[in-house]
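Q: What residues go here?
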């Protein structure tokens, strides 16, 4: 075990034990106002994140998927307090964040870090990468010499030899190398959880595989918890333990990765999985699984927000918003927000293998 991993285990023990979730998000909301008129008043709101609740267990990787604009990145920034939330609660290992006598924001940032999608713009172009990695430890009180040693050890750990890369600037690195620097920088404070927002989406497939393998190795070595946001369903299936599917600012399905990929219960999840690229000619389809654009988030449809694109929608879908409920009382907690599959709703239309 590396010095950094050992330090993390000694400095940040599990406050609530292994059974305590690492992160609990409860009824999070974030609306962006749209202003207009002579007085610049709020005339409408974009409902980017609308009443989302979920947990992230210690040591797991929670994958988050959905179409562009569904609120994945906004959710990540709410969890990191890069954006203020309109309502809702965030609990990190049993401690409420941002409340009186709760976990201070400084301690949250030490324990939870984020790797951004754009590997270049997230680095300071005027700082050598060694200084970029050492910056956060210096801000949190670490001495200059120790911060430099920490930065060099982490660069070595992510596959960048310090004697070759420590003095280079971001524009001198490839995309994969810049993302490795961002991973090293996220690990510099010995965090317990990483939020990875499209961390491999801009990389070539060969480099993507290397970074994914690196993330798996670092997770085991540092005993990390991941929240992995991506639009690539193959990558999410490879790296995740559970998957959360978002649509238009809400969660529509949440459960174990094997269960969701084998038997998706929500029609939106099934359509997303049917859109995956494949080289198998036997799986060709003549009609697209999902047509049309998502509705306007300023004025979403009443009831179920997916009903305007759903082939199984009925009147109840227009009248009532479905709640995220457990399907068939499964022990692995496969949660679905759909009137057609909720047990006991009286409107079950789902075939045994899932909606397709």
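A:
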């Amino acid at each position: 075990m590396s010095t950094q991993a050992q330090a993390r285990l000694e400095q940040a023990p599990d406050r609530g034990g292994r059974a305590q979730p690492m992160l609990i998000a409860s009824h999070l909301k974030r609306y962006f106002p749209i202003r207009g008129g002579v007085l610049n008043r709020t005339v409408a709101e974009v409902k980017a994140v609308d009443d989302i609740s979920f947990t992230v267990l210690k040591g797991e990787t929670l994958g988050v998927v959905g179409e562009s604009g569904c609120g994945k990145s906004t959710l990540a920034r709410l969890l990191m307090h890069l954006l203020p939330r309109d309502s809702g609660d965030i609990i990190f290992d049993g401690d409420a964040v941002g409340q009186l006598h709760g976990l201070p924001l400084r301690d949250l940032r030490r324990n939870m870090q984020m790797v951004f999608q754009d590997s270049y713009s997230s680095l300071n172009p005027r700082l050598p990468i060694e200084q970029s990695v050492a910056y956060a430890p210096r801000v949190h009180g670490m001495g200059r010499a120790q911060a430099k040693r920490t930065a060099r050890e982490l660069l070595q750990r992510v596959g960048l030899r310090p004697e070759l890369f420590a003095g280079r600037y971001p524009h001198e690195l490839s995309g994969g190398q810049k993302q490795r620097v961002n991973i090293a920088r996220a690990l510099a404070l010995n965090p317990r959880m990483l939020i990875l927002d499209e961390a491999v989406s801009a990389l070539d497939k060969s480099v993507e595989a290397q970074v994914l393998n690196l993330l798996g190795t670092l997770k085991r070595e540092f005993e990390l918890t991941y929240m992995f946001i991506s639009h690539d369903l193959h990558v999410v299936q490879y790296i995740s333990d559970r998957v959360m599917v978002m649509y238009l600012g809400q969660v529509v399905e949440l459960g174990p990765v094997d269960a969701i990929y084998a038997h998706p219960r929500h029609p939106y999840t099934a359509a997303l999985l049917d859109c995956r690229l494949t080289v198998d000619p036997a799986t060709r389809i003549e009609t697209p699984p999902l047509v049309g654009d998502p509705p306007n988030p300023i004025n979403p449809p009443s009831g179920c927000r997916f009903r305007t694109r759903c082939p199984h929608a009925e009147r109840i879908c227009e009248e009532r918003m479905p709640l995220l409920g457990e399907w068939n009382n499964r022990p692995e907690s496969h949660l679905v927000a759909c009137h057609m599959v909720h047990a006991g709703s009286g409107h079950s239309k789902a075939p045994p293998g899932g909606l397709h």
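A: Context that may help when evaluating the design: Residues 3 and 321 are 50 Å apart (CA to CA). The two ends are 46 Å apart (CA to CA).
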